[in-house]
Amino acid sequence: MMWDQAEKLRKMVQSSSGKKGSSVIKANRTNARVITVTSGKGGVGKTNFTVNLALALAKLGQRVLIIDADLGMGNVDVILGRSTPYNILHLLDGGFSLMDIITEGPLGIKFMSGGSGLYNLANLDDSQLTRIINKITLLDDLADIILIDTGAGISKSVMNFVVAADEVIIVTTPEPTAITDAYAMVKTYVSHSGTAVLKLVINRVMEPDEGKIAADKLIKVALKFLGLTISSLGFVYEDSNLVKSVKKQTPLLLAFPNTASARCIEQIANRLLDRVASSKTTGVKGFFNKLLGLMR
Description:
Helix content is 47%, strand content 17%. The chain is α/β, with parallel strands linked by helices.
């Protein structure tokens, strides 16, 4: 199965490069949008949101890849009902290409495990880093949008992924503790001199007013005390079907596509495509170069 997936992706690269077997990146390619999805605390539904957002974007014709950057707690594969034995450090092995460590999910979305490999990049020498970065750059040809699913909280490892991105989606809930932790995330981001475009999603709301009030509160406080502009992408309803979908290992948008929460995520995907980052999209290479600079 892994060989079939790798062969399929190789054909995609070959067709996009116009040269059989070529790993050369097209000089006129468009950089992928690299979007970090993060949260101030755990338990707000960040990873479920990331996976379902990827599916919603795929329905809109986008080629989407998820990088699971949650050290030790990554469960993108569990939610998708797929598994992969490889992570980014396998690219140092001469027998592994980028396509070998990518797994294909439903609706053509793809994901790869960063795992501890992402955090060990800082320990590699320059020649090893060059080899990995050269292979990773191929992602700009394979995806229009790359979603980085981080761990929760404001640890240095998490903040590195937030600061390195061109765009950041902060996922929180209306609970006061979650809003407080989301603000702590934003405040820490400012202290790191981040320049990304920040967007906000309020998850697990019971009614629209609850989501709007929570978003307005965080946005106004960030602007008043930090001078930072955050835009709202919307909210997602609390939904018991989400628990059922996790148990089925089938994402909500596939298991229960007609629910109100699924429609919320689809609306957010539409808004995300309407709001292209105002900053220049630096693509995969720009993201990883900046990430490595922060790590070192």
